[in-house]
Amino acid sequence: MPRIVINGAAHQVGEGALLLDVLDDCGIIVPHVCHDRRLQPNGACRLCLVEVKAQPGPVPSCATRVEDGMDVRTDTPALEALRRANLSLLAARYPDEAVLKEPWRPLHRLLNGHGIRGGNRPPARAHHEDTHPYIGVAMDRCILCYRCVRICEELQGQFVWEIAGRGEHSHVAPIGGRTMLEAGCVSCGACVDTCPTGALFDKRSPVHAAGGTRTTCPYCAVGCQVDVAASGGRVIAVRPADHPTNKGHLCVKGRYAFEFQHAGDRVTAPLIRRDGIWQEVSWEDALGHVAARFDTIRSAAGADRIGILASSRATNEECYLAQKFARVVLGTHNVDCCARVCHTPSAKALKTMLGTGAATNGFDDIELARAFLLWGANPTENHPVLGARIKQAVMHGAKLVVVDPRRTELCRYADIHLAILPGTDVLLCNAMAATLIEEERIDHAFLAERVSGFDEFHRFVLDCLPERVAPACGVRAEAIRQAARIYADAIPAMCFHGLGVTEHMQGTEGVMALTNLALLTGNLGKSGSGVNPLRGQNNVQGAALMGCEPNSLTGSQPIRLAREKFEAAWNCTLPASHGLNLLEMMDSARHGDLKALWVHGYDIYQSLANEAATREALDHLELVVVQDLFLTETAQAFATVFLPAASSFEKDGTFTNSDRRIQRVRAVVPPPGQALPDWQIIQRLAGQMGHATGFAFDSPEAIWNEVRELWPGGAGLSYERLDKECLHWPCPDLSHPGTPYLHASSFTNGKTAELARIGFAASPETCTKDYPFILTTGRSLYQFNVGTMTGRTQNQRLHDADTLDMCAADAERLHLRSGDRVRIESRYGATTLRLRVTEAPREGILFTTFHQPALFVNMVTSAVRDRQTDTPEYKQVAVRIG
Ligand code: SF4
Questions:
Q1: Burial class of residue 50 in the structure, from the number of CB atoms within 10 Å of its CB (0-12 exposed, 13-18 middle, 19+ buried)
Q2: Could you tell me the CA-to-CA distances from 580 to 332, 525, 567 in Å, in that order?
Q3: Largest CA distance in the chain
């Protein structure tokens, strides 16, 4: 490590660090306005000048890297004079009233600190607009530091801003003379965050809202770390934390979509519906009512007539308690969560083949990968901070293969895009595998040491050469070969996959077929490689991991292996019967067997595929208890008891993100009214039902410590460590550093993993004369799932309705235009959507999102399920235009 001298004192500093960052870390204040640690050095403002011995003149510390033996002075009178002169130049055109009004802005602090007044000479040109719901523009404050231009390009990769005009008329404006949104702004707010003057500002937080409570974003499973500011019991601003998970970046949901928290229709007292009317009741009455009904049903028909659906928005601690309640208090394994409808196929496939049902590698490997295989995932919309990182890596030279029926944003950057026909993933994987073997692009050493079943697999896959299966996949044979070559040749290559793989009849098998590709090319057990499912909700990985699935206990420990340990710890006899998963619970309810359902933070009626079947199931139940922030569609249509829950801004605990990090959740504001954190609601109901002792926790940390005792892979993850370190499980003891990538020297199952021979099976949802289109579904950048949270924010202005996306050729043939209202019908139901003609979907494929309750896209989706896990086939339903 280099040693340098600063103002006469010796310091040991980081290799290759920028001098300005080193000065900042040492607490030596040097003024600057164009520098941001997230950006490449720029050296434009000339305020951070320092003297370095043996240099002929002052150097900009923001653009100078430290070298061993450097002797630096930051505080000479000559430097002060230079900085003052440069600051005065900046101030000459700057509005003084802005300095007086908002003294906390970085530039204003500098001007005040140096006693320099703004010059009030307005710039010759300044861009003005008031079109964005969150971002205000006051470019008469622009000092041309270009931080907004640079951060949009270097962090988000969006290129919204440009320097327009010349000389005296140079000014920053959205590219091409358009508005921000027209110029492609994705509303990440990075430009606002970096602007040192308030030329770009957050419209809702005119007050200084820096700092705040460090917690985890309430949306997707990237798990961005945020600093949340509050005032008067309300969240007022969210800013990105400088943290390894998100590196000082956020997306529009994490940064801006927090007003749901204080929405007028938030339910803040327990409710019971009597004679069709919701009535406020006390917690004692509500929980007494639920306890009595559970007891009655259990006595009459048995514990297996009751089910619990835990929430993937609840903390690990709360999910742990939910499944403990099911097993210990009710006496049933009927417990599941929304992982069932998204990535249970990934967990099942990875566990079967490699021994651990989770992402193999961490996000920090993105910058180490030389190629990406992005399959059935659209991360720039659904995991935007991760998507931006992949985009940056590709812009810096990594290769990219995209497999998706739609032309998603990242296709613009891809070396090859395979616009696969929905549901043919297994076939395409096999064709790539056949190419790898035929063209000798396999890793022989890895295969010899770590893989079994190669000869059998080779014989099996010979039937699937690209020239043979390409027509069924809807892509060119040569394109399949090119994709295989990129993946095999640019080692290490990282595979990310999404619901485009898993939400199919062959969902689990699709992930197994993908894993074959990683095994054949040696892309496992090292940095920058792996098979990595992109999880949807912030704690969906954690909910399943904590045991909210019928066939495994906390830590994904199979019941048959871990029964005795848990019985001893919980002082109970675990039920002998098999539990039902979410879809089996729906089937059981429809047959009149399941009688009661307790649903935590999950709008199942709107979310589940095949609305008619879901409605029939929920209609048959004698008791539906909903625990949530709002009267969801499920609550309004079917519940008789509503328990008001706290949001993640109102409680403590942990979430598990998509790359296996356990991260802290911290209360920022108190819950409104009588709302309670889920863990306290579960705890109280357990007490009502005679199980106070096993649920007598005084804090989420106490619950977590019980989890750590039962789950060997989490034993080392104490709150004390989580408060200081960024740790991936497995982490078996307090001195273990965590496991950023799995399977380094052996697989969890053993030394070798076996290649899986997966035959292709076509979904019954294929095109016919009566149903000539395939509809596939997904999410948009601005909304989250069924819109329970984002639908109550200004994001609604940015994405106000689900549309039906159709390519121009199909639209022309049907004489349809953008904006037409179009009815789509499947064998299961119908809905009407506004048409959007776009080149994203290929001919014969339609696409829609499913965020709007009123449009209810799940009226149309089918009853087909993954053959191994029951995950619904959201990605493929045959439809016609009505
Ligand atoms: Fe939140 Fe995901 Fe956006 Fe990060 S990428 S801010 S975790 S929604």
A1: buried
A2: 9, 34, 20
A3: 91
Closest atom of ligand 1 to 657 CA is 7
Q: Look at ligand 1, atom 4, and give the residue with the nearest C-alpha.
A: 224
Would you state the structure tokens that stand for residue 864, as one six-digit string?
């087909």
pLDDT of residue 504: 97
Q: Cα–Cα distances in Å, from 188 out to 195, 219, 256?
A: 14, 14, 8
| Cβ of 218 below 6 Å from ligand 1 | no
Whether the CB-CB separation of 881 and 822 falls below 8 Å is answered with yes
Amino acid at 661: R
Q: 792, exposed or middle or buried, with CB in 10 Å at 0-12, 13-18, 19+?
A: buried
Query: Going along 133-224, which residue ranges are E strands?
Result: 135-137, 161-164, 171-174, 200-202, 213-216
The per-residue pLDDT for 206 is 61
| CB 336, CB 582: distance < 8 Å | yes
Q: Compute, in degrees rounded to 10, the torsion defined by CA atoms 676, 679, 680, 686.
A: 140
Report how far residue 753's alpha carbon sits from residue 228's, in angstroms, rounded to the nearest whole number.
Answer: 44
Residue 253 CB–ligand 1 contact under 6 Å: yes
> Is residue 448 packed enough to be buried (19+ CB in 10 Å), middle (13-18) or exposed (0-12)?
exposed
SS3 230: strand
pLDDT for res 853: 85
HEC-encoded secondary structure of 81-114 = HHHHHHHHHHHCCCCHHHHHHCCCCHHHHHHHHC
Query: Does 251 contact ligand 1 (Cβ within 6 A)?
Result: yes
The pLDDT assigned to 882 comes to 86
Average pLDDT by consecutive 10-residue portion of the chain (882 residues)?
A: 92 92 93 93 88 93 94 94 91 90 93 88 80 94 94 96 86 93 96 95 75 94 96 93 95 97 97 97 98 98 98 97 98 97 96 97 97 98 97 98 97 97 98 98 98 98 96 98 98 97 98 98 98 95 97 97 98 97 98 98 96 98 98 97 98 97 98 98 98 97 98 98 97 98 93 96 96 96 93 94 96 97 97 95 95 91 97 97 91
Decide if 98 contacts 143 (C-beta within 8 A). Answer: no
Pocket mutation for ligand 1, best pick of 216, 219, 661 (most atoms within 8 Å of C-beta)? 219
Could you count the other beta carbons within 10 Å of the beta carbon of residue 40?
Answer: 9
User: Which atom of ligand 1 lies nearest, measured to the CA of 252?
Assistant: 3
Q: What is the Å distance from ligand 1's center to 313 Cα? A: 13
Q: Residue 207: what pLDDT? A: 60
The answer, yes or no, to whether any atom of ligand 1 lies below 6 A from the CB of 540, is no
Atom 3 (ligand 1) nearest CA: 251
DSSP code, position 383? S
Minimal-distance CA residue to ligand 1 atom 1: 254
Overall pTM surpassing 0.85 (yes/no)? yes
H/E element holding 627?
A: strand 623-628
